[in-house]
Each structure stands twice: as C-alpha cells, then as structure tokens.
Amino acid sequence: MGGLRIAALGPLRAWRDGRPLDIGPAQQRAVLTSLTLRCGQVASADELVRDVWGSDPPASAHVAVRNHISRLRTVLESESAAPKALVSVAGGYALHLPDGALDVSQAERLHARAQSARSQGELEPAVRSLAEAEALWDGTPLTGVPGPYAQRQRDRLVEYRLLLVEARLTLELQLGGHSRVVGELLTLADEHPLREGLRALQMLALYRCGRQADALAGFNAARRHLAAELGVDPGPELVRLHQRILEADPTLAPPPGVATASPAAGPAAGPDRPTWVPPAQVPPDVPDFTGRGEESRQVRDALAGAVRTDATAPVICVIHGMGGVGKTTLAVHAAHAVREQFPDGQLYVDLRGTGRERANPYEVQEWFLRSLGVLAGNVPSGREERTALYRSRMAGRRLLLLLDNAADTEQVSALLPGTAGSAALVTSRTALMCLPATTHTALEPFSEREALALLERMAGSGRCRQEQQTARDLVRACGMLPLAVRIVGARLVARPRWTLATLAERLSDRSQRLGELEAGSLAVESVFHLGYSTLDDAEARAFRLLAIPEVPDLSPAAAAAVLRCDRREAEATLESLTHQGLLEPGEPGRYRYHDLLRLFARHRTLDTDPAPTRQAALSRVARFYLAGTSSAMRAERPYSRLPDAADPDGMPGAAAFTDALHAQDWVLHELPAMLAVAGQILHHPYRPVSAEDTRTLSCLLALLMPFTDFCLPWGPIHQLSHTLLRAADHHGERLATVFSCITASVACARIGHHEEAVALAARAHETLDPADQVLAPRVVYTMGVVAAVRPDGLEEAIGHYRSAHALAGESGEPGMAAQCSVSLARAHLALDRPHQALEAARDALAQCPPGDNPVGIALAQRVLGDVLAALGRFDEAVTEYGTALAVCRSHGLHAQRAHTLLALASVLAAVGRPEQARTCAAEAGAALAQLGDAAGEERARAFMSRLPAAGSSAPPAAPEGSR
Questions:
Q1: Chain-centre distance of CA 798, in angstroms?
Q2: Which of 362, 524, 625, 627 could make a disulfide contact with 651, Cβ separation 3.0–4.6 Å?
Q3: Tens digit of each residue's pLDDT (9 = 90 or more) over 633-654
C-alpha cells in the first residue's frame, strides 16, 4: 500500500509511489469517491449503489459495483491478491489510506492548526496555514464524477473552501493587510454576491484603503443582488457596517502602526513632469466574464507576488493560446482584480503581434514614458538612452503593464520593468518560452459547462433552459471557443424572436459555419486570418494541406506523407504552426486542429490548392497508413506473406517496426484515423475513387483483419468494403476485388448478414488467381469462417478449414496452417467431437514456431484448454490457460488475455472454485469493457451472474465457451 495518495479537491486523481494511476471511467470514479470520502468507514454495496445511481439504480447496479471494486483493487493495490487499502469488511467495502494521503484530510488538519494558532493570538501563522490549505484546491472538487453522493460532497467542499478563504481574509484585515487583499475581495464578492460575510470584508478593506465611495457602492450592490435573487434585505451586521462607514466610525481604522492608504500620489512636478495623474489605461472589464476560475486565480496570485516585500525581480505573467480563446479578456479581468496593488498606474498597449504591422517596442516606450509624466521633447531618440530612461522612470514604482497580443520575446523584452514591485502581463498566441516569466498560463477553449454558462449569461438562462440540448449543440458547433460562443450569444441578443434552434440550424452547415460566426466587429474568421496572414508560403501551404485528412490528430510521420517531405522537416513545420497558435499539441508527438481552425484551413485549401493537389495529399496519407500497417503485421506475424502481397513496395518514411508490442500500439492508435481517411476518400460527394486509392484501401482493410486482438468496428468496415468492391469492379482491379470480398465477407458474418457473407466469400474464390499461393489459403479460410456462423454450416466449414490448411502447407506458411487448425478445433468442439478437436489443437501448436507467432501460440493454447475442459481434464486445461495467459502478458495481447481469463473462469467454476472464477471473470470483463468489446463484457457479466453467491452451497455454473 506504500505511497498511495488520492486528491479530491479538483479532478479525482490517485498516485502510488509518485506514479499517476488510471482510476477508470466515470462510474468507477464515483465508487472510489464514495469510499475515499468515508475516510475508512465501511460502505455497504447498497450504499455504494445509492451513491452512484441514486434512488432508481439499474438492475445491474450491484454487479457493476463489484466490477468497479475489482478494477479499483487492481489499480490501487501493490499486491491485489492481499489487499491492504481497498478491503472487504462485513458485507461492504472500506478504503484505508495512510495519514496525509488524502488532500481533504490535509486541508482539515491545516484548518485546525490555524484555529489553534488564532486562539493563541498567533495571527500570521494562522494565515499561512489557511493559505496552505486553500492551495490544495485544484479547481472544482471531484470534477466530472457523477452521482448524488459526489454532488453533495462537491457542494460541501466548495463551501468549505469559501469558509477557509473568509477566515484567512478576516485575519489579513486584522493584521492590517487591507491593501494586499482588497483586489481579491473585489473578485470574490462579485463571484459570490449573496455571501454577506465576504461583502462585509470587501467594504471594510475598501474603506481602509481610502475608498469610502466604493465601499458604500459595495453595500448597494449587495442589497440589489439579495433583493433580486432572494427577495430579502441585507442582514443586520452588513447594515450596521454600512452605517458605521457613513459615520466614519474611528473603530474601523486599521490596527495601530498601519497607515490608511490614500489615493496614489504621482511624482512631484518638475521640468519634465507637469501635473501628473497615474495612468489607468487597461480596457474595461467585460460584465459577463465567465469561467476561467483556476487560470484567473493563477494569474492574480502571480501578479500579487510583485508587491511582496521580499520580491527581488519584477513579475512577468504570460497568457498564451489560439486566436479567439479569450487571452485578452482574461488578462483585462485579472488586471482589474489587482489594480489596487499597483497604485502608480496601469499601462496598456496592443502590440499587434498577429498583424503584418507590428508595434515597434521603442515607439511603445515613448508612449509609456509620456504616460509616466515625461514630456515628449525629453524622450531620447536613441534606443539605448530611451530604454535606460524607461527603466529608470519605472524603478521604485508599483506599475502594472498589460502587453497585449505580443508577437515574440524580442518585441516584449524592451518593455519589461527592470526592478521588483512592478509586473507585466503579456498575452500572445505563442508561448514565449524564452521570456523569463514567473508563470505561463496556457489558455484552452472552454469546457462545455463554461461555454453554456457564457451563452446563458448573454442570451438568458430561461431561453437556454427551454432548449437545453440545442444550447449544447450550439456551443459544440462553436468548438467551445469563447469568441465564437460570445458571437452566438450576441446574435441571439440582437434577435430576441429567434429560437436557439434557428441559429443551430444555420451553424449545422459546416461550409457556412465560419460565415455565421460574425457579429458586428467580432468575426472568428477574421481572427484566424490574422495568424494565417503572417505565415510564409511553405507554412501556409502546410497549414492548408494538413487539414485535408479528417483525422483526430497527426503524427510527424503522417504529416510528412501529406506534405511529401521528410519526417524532420514535417515535425519542424508542425512545431512552428503550434508555436503560432494554429495547431494544438495533443499527446506527445501528436498534433491536432481546433474544429473551427480546421474549417478555416479547409476553406483556404479549397480557394488556393487545385483539386489534384488535395486528392494527392489524401492519397499519400492513405498510402502511409497501408505501409505502416503492413510493417506492423510483419513485426507481429513474421511468418505471414500477406504484407508482401498487399504492400510489396512499402513507402519511404512510413512507420517501421521490429517489436510486436509497438506495432500493435501503432495500429490501435491509428485505427480511427485509418477508417476516417478511408471513409473520406470513398464517400466523397462528387469525386470518384481512383484506381490507386482502390488498391491502397482494399489492401489496408484486408491487412487490418488479422489483428484479432482489436475490436474492429464491423459496421463501418462493412460499408467501406462494399464501396471499395464497387470501385474495384469499376476499375477492373482483380486483386482489390479479392481483398474487398474477403473484408466484406468477414464484416457481413460479424454483423449477422450470413447469406451475403457466403456469397462474397464465394465471389472472392471465383475471382482469385489460381496461381496465387498467398491469397488462396486465406480465401478458402474465409469461406470456412462465414460457413461456421450458420447453425448448419459447421461441416462445410470443416471442409474449408482442411483445404485452407493444405494450401497453407503447400505455400510454406505454418502460421496460416496453425490458424486453420485452431478454427478446425473449435468447429469440432461445437459438433461435440472433443477427440478430433484435441488432434487439431495439438496440430495448431505444432505449427507455431516458438517466438515467431505469439498470437497463434496464445490462440492454440487457449483452444487446447477449451478441448481439455470439454474432455473433463480440468487440471490440464488450467495449465494450458496459464501458458496462454503468460504469452498474452509478455506480448501485450490484451483481448486474447481477457477471453482466456473468461475461459479459465468457466473451468474454475466447474471444479468448485467459484471465488477464483469470479475474480478471473471480473478481470476479463473489466479488460473487455476497456477495449470496447461490449459483447465480451456482457458474456463476462452473464457468467458472473450464474455463479453461486459467496458461501453458497449451490452447484457451480456450467463451463461456457469463449471466442
């Protein structure tokens, strides 16, 4: 159990020995939440069901809870066979964590320490303990965890944090820190307008800062909110404080020794400094600022560090992200929140970094110097002298600079303050990583919750609640981009008679969507064009062409195929586009477009690049996926001759593998992209499929068939293969016809179109070149597969498997022969011929050279175990399953391992070991669920439901076959 930690004050996360743990899907997180926040107390299964599903759980809820417990135990325990953390107790479950392993408990201990220090008059240590407790929060507690229990705990923890904040700010004011906390109180009181305690602290801080009018305005704001939301007046304490401020009650003064702040005084008048007013140039804050709680807090906290007495350097905060993501809005909001901490003024400039006419930083220096009281005639003309005066004029002052829309580090560097006490807040589409920044805040599009909140604030909550699903459709069409959501809200405000559905319908046309996202001076397309216009020709071409494949993300190798360049050049281009905010970094080594940027890029390529260029780019990426898949099969099945038949030439720069695990991972990761590109080519509305694409895609889909460890999406493959077959017929491509028939036949069999599957397999056989020794055994084997799915087709299937076995032997492919023997054994088992099945299973093992065919070995060992179980030789069956599991583990055959576990569970149940059977079946079900194999997961669930309850004397469940 050593080193187990759990965090609930934000997204639910867990670590063991510093390594993050995968705690599973949403319902599993809900179970972990229920156990974690009970702090070691036992929760019954009924309680867990109510916690996750409430008062109306599904019939399978108790089984699901047991499955979640089993998976959590596997993840959380260092030795799942002897659990120490997640234990079963008295018909329920309990989670025991070491001291200090839960952030909620840490916060409670720090709170208790602060209360103790405060009772002893030690206010500063109490403030430090409370601040340390607040820092444990990482956003909204239990983000994304479903269920009524999680919601109750989420509400409690949000309220608890506000309690800590209020306690700390009370102590800060007792210590005379009104100028230090007034900015934070302004923000908090606006965010929580119904909390009279926060409003009272805000009013007191403002009054002590010499801002009596603002303090009284805070009371009026509180009164309006309370009347509008609750229909009540402020409480007696707030009313009494209001009256004391009106009377200038001397007891409201700061503690002795702390001076009340007066309005910021400018420097004395002199020859170059006439009567001077501290600049306040930051643009107005938006009244409907929404979301960005964590990012706003990070920026405000960093800026507040500029005025610490121990600060030795100016604070520099960078906010970066794509165009339209709300960088300026956040920066302006944060600047207003902390402006009281910078009494010598706030300077602002738009550096126009995304345009061709960028602001000259030395001209900006002149503007800032004049804002700081220097006469125009006294500004030096030389850059070095001007910079020296600029830094000198800022020295010793508390100034906040908002440098908006910066192009690069060079443009910003000349404008930064040189001494502690001041701060610069910089926004840019690039990360400005070379800037010596205190913080870098990467701004991403809104979450759906934040986007809906902004839409509601603009268009009206009643209007959005009437069309909740349509509101979600709207913000999704906006790609959660704040600018796009704001435009949609503005259009709805301007058209009160429009329903949300009216605008959603207009946005549903992707070709017109960017044109619809325009309102007055706001336009998404114009913002994107600013960044696009700064690209050189090569980068602009890459930005356009890389958007053509409609894939979730791109690797540098795939990008190299699209751009027809080497991998290093492609990676440099991807990095440059990411640096300029036109691409987003995904997983390590992956890059993706925001949905609206992809639309923008596709519009540009349609306007700029001729159709043959676009088609060739898409064909190259399809060819890249074919070459990678053939390389993966060569690594996983080195005995197979199929890759040579499908992809004899390969492709320079394509993925190459020597390790089967890496090959499988690559295919699994790229599978959605492969199918997306195939669909994009085959279902183009007006462009016919070329002969080259027909050959490429038919070979690609055929090569995917042998990857039996993946749960292939048979419905889409069925559609794609039929389209390919028509294209192959049109072009007279014989090899493509055979491949397409094989793929379509297997897909039909998988989705239950048995007659069509048989006809397609027969057609593949008729079309096959009789001299083709590679495809001949595979076509005949496919005929056996589709025959076997019919209840009366097993005898026919056996004949086909034997013929395919003989053909594989003649062509020198023992691995293919082993595959035929495995299927032959299964067919004999289905016909209740275990002795013939045993002979076939042993032949399959004999055909698999050790180390060359792990998939074949695992399948053969498992089917041998199935046969031995059918013969009643259970101990031998268990041994064979164990050998198969060892092969699966060492070669990453996740699906094969899951089905082997399910087969082993059947045997364990048959020999009277139901608890071990339950453990195996639960592990199998969890793995199958993770792989997306719904049918396999249902078999595991059904098997466990037939097992006797713990301690029952009921007979064990009968053995059940597996895939």
A1: 47
A2: 627
A3: 888 888 888 998 888 877 777 7
